[in-house]
Amino acid sequence: MRNNMWRTLTASRPITAAQFSYGRNFGNLARPQLFAWRISRLGPLRASRILSHSARCISSSAEKPSTIDDISQKSAISTEHLPVVSMDERKVSIGWDAQTWSRFHNMWLRDHCRCPHCFHPVTKQRLVNTFEIPTNIAPTRVAAMPDGLEVSWPGIQPHVSLYPWSWLQTNSYDPPMVNKDIKTEKILWGSKIEQSPPTMTYEEVMAEDEGGLFKWLSQIDQFGFCFVSGVPTTPEATEELSQRIGFIRQTQYGLFWDFTSDLAKGDTAYTTMALGAHTDTTYFTDPCGLQLFHLLSHTDGSGGATLLVDGYYVASILKELHPDAYDMLSTIPIPAHAAGEPSAFYRPNPPRGYPVLRRDPSTGELFQVRWNNDDRSVMSHLEPHNVEKWYKAIRAWHQCLTSPDSEYWVQLRPGTAVVVDNQRVLHGRSAFDGKRRMCGAYIGMDEYRSKLTVLREKFAADPMILANDNVPGSGRHIWHRAL
User: Fold this and answer.
1) DSSP state of 269
2) What's the angle, vertex CA 385, arms to CA 382 and CA 390, rounded to 5?
3) What contacts 220, CB < 8 A, 6 or more positions away?
4) Which pLDDT belongs to residue 69?
5) What residue spans in the chain does CATH classification 3.30.2020.30 cover?
6) Which GO terms describe its biological process (predicted)?
């Protein structure tokens, strides 16, 4: 029997202590789905790390890797332990062990060749002409090599492709084996987050080595928000802090805001009124990604406490307690508008808008919360039998949002900025009096994700990339998961 080192790993990662500490307890029952809804999962790789420059052989089945860290410590395998490969007129099959196989269509494999003739090693753009590949293409030979699957293709000029084993496992689709997207565990939180909120210092974030910047953006990715202390109380320093993440996104409110409660813009944010928990720019087709606030001063008055609510946490509670409401808020779109400025009138495309809870259609995972009842337009598209159900659903959502268990209130002080993921964390404020000066900016979600990905490449290298670091190329690795 073949060595079992390639056996599929299926054990899920345990819930972390941090996830429990901010969770919710119902009658002392440990309910993981209420403590921490794991929005994204990083499944373990299902094979050892393949390093062509190593000759060490793993021969004992008792040494099967069980975690990604274990896998990253393993070396290349000898030819006697290579996966079994076979081919027919339609597919190439790979046997990782006696029970685990992956199948790849011949067309798919040829289309994904990443030799320099088929994939530009510098620009990371495809060069192969997909539409010139014969629909009935079949390899002339397949071979299991220490570095990966070697496939020889027919043609006037025969072509040879090499696919790393770890890349094939990550991108296996028949059956799916590994989540190809690198994601961090989301830490869901309620009001108890006040005991230890994520916080960085201005000096850390602005350090040239970008280590503090990576930690800052990683905290935002996990928690949906993060404070930055020790920020100079000037618009210039705050704008520089914003640009540390990426380009500032200009809207009808300008590029970088520096405003008071003078109603200079047609929005209730420019008043002294209390604002309930909401996300901004629900009237945009693409809502703003990150939002940075910095209170520069507050004189001759009091109030104006900041409210933060984890939309993912609230959604997990809604899903548990009111599954019908969760489904309705995940499917019925809500139109929105921004019409307070005479020179602007914003509505999303399509005009009926998007659901409060947007989920990945392929996985069902929640990836966006967009809710602002103040900006909601007419719900004229509701089916008659859904009208009362819809109002019941948003009432349940509102009750979960405004529960003392969900609300985190904090009094911001000059010198402390806060960044929130506007597509996850809802914000609001209490009413205030006196004169308050606030500044801040929007940063696009794509810019933020791009910066985080680049920093992750620098400070938290993907084991799959390390496993194939002998492949020639310039800049970003050609076998990067996201490519």
Assistant:
1) G
2) 55
3) 198, 226, 290, 419, 421, 448
4) 33
5) 84-171
6) carnitine biosynthetic process
CATH 3.40.50.1580 corresponds to the domain 84-171: no
Q: Is 366 exposed, middle or buried (0-12, 13-18, 19+ CB in 10 A)?
A: buried
Q: Is 15 exposed, middle or buried (0-12, 13-18, 19+ CB in 10 A)?
A: middle
Q: Which residues pair with 439 in a beta bridge?
A: 258, 294
User: What pLDDT does 51 receive?
Assistant: 25
Looking from the CA of 118 toward its CB, the CA atoms found within 13 Å total: 16
> Is beta strand 290-299 parallel, antiparallel or unpaired with respect to 435-443?
antiparallel
Dig out the tokens for 439 from the structure.
Answer: 């500044």
Biggest distance spanned by C-alpha atoms of the chain: 83
* Nearest Cα to Cα of residue 188 among 220, 152, 223: 223
Is the distance from CB of 79 to CB of 130 less than 8 angstroms?
Answer: no
Q: Which one-letter amino acid corresponds to residue 208? A: E
Outline which parts of the chain fall under CATH 3.60.130.10: 191-457
What does DSSP assign to residue 155?
S
How are the residues of the chain apportioned to helix, strand and coil, as percentages rounded to the nearest 5?
A: 30, 20, 50
Q: Which residues pair with 162 in a beta bridge?
A: 150
Over the chain (483 residues), what is each successive 10-residue block's mean pLDDT?
30 33 33 31 29 26 30 43 93 94 97 95 94 96 95 91 94 84 84 98 97 98 98 97 96 89 75 92 97 95 95 98 98 96 93 97 94 96 97 98 98 97 97 92 96 91 62 66 76
Tokens 């929007």, residue?
A: 442
What residues have CB less than 8 Å from 333, skipping those under 6 apart?
350, 352, 353, 354, 355, 381
Among 90, 151, 81, residue whose Cα is nearest residue 118: 151
* CB distance 275 to 431 below 8 Å: no
* pLDDT of res. 467: 57
Give the CA count within 13 Å in the CB-facing half-sphere of 385: 0
